[in-house]
Amino acid sequence: AVEWSCAGCNTANKQALSLPSCSPYKADLATYLPPPASCLSLDPLGFVYVKRTTNSKEIKYWPVIVCDMIYHYVYVRLVHDIKANTIRHLLLQHQAERGRILLLTVDAGSSLTPQKLKEEIAGERMLDDLAILQFTPRGQHRSASERRTAILKKSIAATLKKHYNQSLNRATPPLHPMEWQSLFSMCCAVANE
Which has the closest alpha carbon to 68: 34, 90, 43, 39? Predict the structure, then answer.
């Protein structure tokens, strides 16, 4: 088994790296690592304000951190809400771009419960063998995306303060969705180094 120096990391990796019994990959994980982007962790951040044009109304969007549990790279997608249907589309998009997803973990504080997600993806052929785990309450730093969230938030806050002279919670004036996505992409590049 993969052993890390931190007890919390070991707990998280044992949970995340134990593939479900229905998985076609029943090999010992010491000899087999799943392909990149197949074991993911999702964590929505707080909302940000978006303004599509100068005369349009402010809209709330949510950045969702997607973290690879095995290879620990992270990226952020900006979504218009954090309902199960939107997350289903995010997973389908991820799978089309990066390959099959075997495992998805969410934290207990999220509105993305495994039950809601399983109901939403029930008829989806592309996500048939997806196993969804939820970390226990008070298990905030057990998920790889939770550990990356702190790095990302610091990077985002520093970038906003330097370039836009604003904070993450209340961006005044609101940014265009492409500006937010560019900002998140730059901050993910820093976190992935």
Answer: 39
HSE of 138, CA atoms in CB hemisphere, 13 A? 0
Could you tell me which residues come within 8 angstroms of residue 81 by beta carbon, excluding any fewer than 6 positions away?
62
- Residue (of 182, 171, 178) closest to 49 by Cα position: 171
Check: pTM over 0.90? Answer yes or no: no
**What integer pLDDT is reported at residue 26 of this predicted model?**
47
Q: What are phi and psi of 61, to 5 degrees?
A: -125, 155
Query: How many Å apart are CA 9 and CA 22, to the nearest integer?
Result: 25
Q: Name residues whose C-beta falls within 8 Å of residue 141's C-beta, 6 or more positions apart in sequence.
A: 8, 147
DSSP 63-122: EEEEEETTT--EEEEEES---HHHHHHHHHHHHHHH----EEEE-TTSS--HHHHHHHTT
pLDDT, residue 79, reads 92
Closest by Cα among 126, 113, 116, 132 to 40: 132
